[in-house]
Amino acid sequence: MNDRFLVVKYMKEFIYSIDKLVINFPRKEFVIKDRILNDSLDILEMIYIANVNNDNNLKCNILAKLSMLDFYIERSYKNGLISEKVCKKKSSEINNISKLIYGWLKWK
Q: Which among 9, 29, 50, 89 could disulfide-bond with 58, CB atoms 3.0 to 4.6 Å apart, if both were Cys?
């Protein structure tokens, strides 16, 4: 739909890949699974809103949520839910999205 907006494109790809990843989490880890999924969708929603409103505070909130998402991924690795390779890949994707948000924040 709005794939010309690069941040949205990368975030959507991240969400699709994370959906496939967390489906294998055990039932006892439902809290971290829900946090990862919900925060990912919240970030996408906040990106759309920040694009319309051009709100720098909202962009800072997006960065905070991305940091938390990175922590959830790291915690999943520490608990043995994902491999180190997957953890590094997802952290790298989050880092790339963060760089785009920082650039967006400085640009406007």
A: 50
pLDDT digits 0-9 by tens, 21-53: 899 899 998 899 999 999 999 999 999 998 888
How wide is the angle at C-alpha 77 spanned by C-alphas 12 and 31, nearest 5°? 70
What are the C-alpha distances in Å from 65 to residues 28, 34, 98? Answer: 23, 14, 10
The torsion angle over the Cα atoms of residues 12, 50, 4 and 22, rounded to 10 degrees, is: 0
Amino acid code (one letter) for 38 = N
CA distance 67 to 61: 10
Burial class (CB in 10 A: 0-12, 13-18, 19+), 32: middle
Residue 1 covered by a domain: no
Q: Residue 68 is part of a domain; what is its CATH number?
A: 1.20.1440.60
What is the reported pTM? 0.88
Q: How far apart are CA 108 and CA 7, in angstroms?
A: 15
